[in-house]
Amino acid sequence: MSRAAAIALALALAAWVGATPAFAHERILFIGNSFTMGANSSALRYRADSVAALTEANIGGVPAIFERFADQAGFEWEASHELSGGKDLAWHLANRREAIDKPWDVVVLQQYSTLDERNPGDPATTLRDAPALARLVSDRNPDVKVYLLSTWTRADQALKPTGYWYGQPLEAMALAVRRALDAADAASDDIDGVIPVGEAWQRTISQGIADGNPYDGRDFGKVDLWSYDQYHASAEGSYLEALVVFAHVTGYDVRQFGAGEKAANELGIEPRIAEALQRVAMEQLAGARVGFD
């Protein structure tokens, strides 16, 4: 990173930290699939009793990590989730409307990892369904904040010959998802922004904290953000996801948690890695470019 870029990043972080975080009692709903559930890692069942399951029970995942962060930050958040593995936003809209249609303060929407299961990279259904879900919850509470969670590059889609993004830069899939969500955001007055989890993931790799290719062995000292299927997130990947979501939604500087942060300890994440992921989350939210510093 150049000196000028470092100064710009420091100023952006200072401005972010200076923002007033949310302290009031808030109700947040997570809508998504296994990428929010923390499937295939210790995050899946983590503190499942600390969050309200509107449908599938015994799932903690990112909502439970979010709740754990809130407790430590002194915030009053009530986290709920409506999650189902392998589903897209169209499925939630068609099959879980009654569960979703309640007065929430914040709603986080997570689309299918490739945008469209049958046509990877095609944003059409996202442009249709994300605004429709946002309209549903906004009709119930006009003051609700609706955010779209931009997910990460799947190693199986980027690094294997059968993958749709094979032969392209590693960040290509994450950026394709981000562009689609940005377009949905721009098209809807009911959507309030995009949470850049996939870009934070790429930043973690570019800074040498995480390994960028799970198929050739893991470099010593680095973590694997992917789980054993090179698709879902590992505990560290879900932890990073939750950090970015929490900081984005609440305005809290997650670097304040430090090496002793409780969720990381309970998930078995090395303290130095927890600190590094906290830093990366804040750097990404400060607005620096993905993967190139």
Describe the protein's architecture and organization.
- There is one protein chain.
- This protein is an alpha/beta fold.
- The chain has a single domain, classed as 3-Layer(aba) Sandwich (Rossmann fold).
- Helices cover 44% and strands 10% of the residues.
- The chain contains 12 helices and 6 strands.
- It has helices spanning 3-18, 34-37, 61-73, 89-95, 97-100, 124-140, 155-158, 172-187, 197-206, 235-250, 262-267, 271-285, and strands spanning 26-32, 52-53, 77-83, 106-110, 145-150, 194-196.
- It has a 6-stranded parallel β-sheet with strand order 2-3-1-4-5-6, sandwiched between helices.
- Helix 6 (124-140) links the parallel strand 4 and strand 5 (145-150).
- Helix 6 crosses helix 8 (172-187), helix 9 crosses helix 10 and helix 10 (235-250) packs across helix 12.
- The longest helix is centred in the middle third of the chain and has 17 residues, at 124-140.
- It is globular and about 50 Å long.
- The N and C termini lie close together (5 Å).
